[in-house]
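Thread: quick sanity check before group meeting

JM: Hey all, I'm pulling together slides for Thursday and realized we never actually wrote out the predicted structure for the chain we discussed last week. Dropping the sequence here so it's in one place. If anyone has concerns about the input, flag it before I start.
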Amino acid sequence: MKLGCILLAAGTSQRYGTNKMLANLLGKPLIDYILSNIPIERFDECITVVSNDEVLDRVKPYNMKIVYNDNPDRGIGSSIRLGIEALSNVDACMFCVSDQPMLTTKTITDMIDNYQEGTIYSLSHESERGNPVIFPSSVLDELANLKKGEFGTKVIYSHKDILVLHETNDETQLIDIDTHENLLYVKSLIKQASL
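JM (edit): ok, ran it. Output follows.
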């Protein structure tokens, strides 16, 4: 099975106020956490969608194809579409977001190892779904045609019959950074874990 990975890193960070992917999280930009934790060697192809030159510079050292989104204001659907258009022939694709610093390499690897071809496979905690999500090739066209304001959740709801959840007992792995308060909370979690 050929598996792709698309990292969505072209958001406008409206709720955060500034580009959150470059926010300082204990000495390094937020985006560096997910870049370090994606097991690139486990994928047949890895693509990152960016809309900022500084973020692009953070991605360059990694063995990923970079796609530039000139119109991030059109919503996440535009980044999903650009990522899919840049994909080669794959049987499924994992979509990751760039603001999920607690997500571990082990969790991503476990999802890859346990993926059942043809399903939508989503990380979850106590049945609360989150990212990343692996989508089969059969629904990639639907994802590529999301309208402004629509998310991958729309496609998941349309195909609940093939949805499988990958349960983690660590709810912090699903935390994404939308506000400065979220960032402060994650800083405290990382500091506690290192004590």
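AS: nice. The mean pLDDT is 93. The first helix runs from residue 30 to 37.
JM: adding both to the slides.
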